[in-house]
Amino acid sequence: MNGPVAALSKDGKRLHLQHGPIDLIVEAEGEANAVEGAYERAWVRFRTVLEDLVAELPTLRRPLGGTPHEFNGSVAQRMRDAVSGFHGGFVTPMAAVAGAVADEICEAIGAFEDAAEISRAFVNNGGDIALLLAPGTSYDVGLVPVPNRPAIIGKTTILAEDQVRGIATSGRHGRSHSLGVADAVTVLARQAATADVAATLIANAVDLPGHPAVERVTAMHLDPDTDLGKQLVTTAVGALTDDDVVTALTAGSLKANAMVETGSIIAAVLCLNDEIVSVGSPAGSARRLTADNESGWSGQI
Fold first, then answer.
1. What's the DSSP call for residue 122?
2. Phi/psi of residue 151, each to 5°?
3. 70-96 b/e with 16+ CB inside 10 Å = b?
4. In what order do the strands lie in the sheet with 154-159?
5. What are the angstrom distances between the C-alpha of 118 and each of 39, 94, 112, 185, 280?
6. Closest by CA position to 264, among listed 162, 193, 160
7. CA 176 to CA 285: how far, in whole Å?
8. How far is CA 271 from CA 26, 107, 202, 293, in A?
9. Fewer Cβ close by (within 10 Å): the C or N end of the chain?
10. What is the DSSP letter of 149?
């Protein structure tokens, strides 16, 4: 495996960090010296992230069970803590890996005195995003319902005074296997690791158990090293009726609503077959998702 790599974009505004399967886009805004320092901290912390995770990978691939696992690495600890906040449904700490890495690097950016000169920053790990927002700043989040049809059909604005600092998306078109049929589930939460786990669990809950149009195989058939083992993962979804879509989205929204009610997440948007259901809001009812009705999508968060 090649070692970690860092590169600035041509305009010098963004930092690209890559090591094995981890691929981050980092952007910080503020005083030039502060941004330079932020990128240096991100790079220093990033260099050992993958090797730290690999050292504890066998345990990270196991469900927590009754007693949470002990981990040495701070990213692994983030993953464990994020997963332990949820109950019900098969899940291992690996469900939080992308968000936890984003959180770790974002924390490194804001860890020193010159971070006060950073107005805002984000760390994007394949669509799972950790945010740093100074007072008076904001961040726009676009909703992409199907990753292989990258069209933004709506957005919401996260303000610095909101509690949202993590965004994650999961579904059957994503990088990881899904147990459900959702095209995409996007979650807003206080940390990216939490959002990552919640998006996975909600996407798994958007499901039609036993439906003849849904094709599934055991996860280990597709990837012998997967943490999902003998769990059945979705490989294809055929024609669904309107009632099927409502049934699946209702199941997922029940899961999402429960998470909002307990404070685990702040908001979620569930997408299936050109329909969306939304739960919660980043700042109460005053600010909601703006959707492009001409796209055939509707709904709010």
1. E
2. -120, 125
3. ebebebbbbbbbbbebbeeeebbbbbb
4. 138-143, 154-159, 290-291
5. 11, 31, 11, 30, 29
6. 193
7. 33
8. 27, 31, 11, 15
9. N
10. B
**Radius of gyration from C-alpha coordinates of the chain:** 19
Q: Which residue has the tokens 């095209």?
A: 183
CA dihedral sign, ordered 112, 162, 194, 102: negative
pLDDT values of the chain reduced to their tens digit, one per residue, 301 residues? 689 999 999 998 999 999 999 999 999 999 999 999 999 999 999 999 999 999 999 999 888 776 667 899 999 999 999 998 887 777 889 999 999 999 999 999 987 766 678 999 999 999 899 999 999 999 988 777 666 666 666 778 899 998 899 999 998 876 677 878 999 899 999 999 999 999 999 999 999 999 998 887 887 777 777 766 777 777 888 999 999 999 999 999 999 999 999 999 999 999 998 888 889 877 543 344 444 433 332 333 2
Total Cβ atoms within 10 A of residue 141: 21
As a whole number of angstroms, the distance between CA 123 and CA 176 comes to 20
Q: How many CB atoms lie within 10 A of CB 40?
A: 15
For 168, the token pair is 């994650």
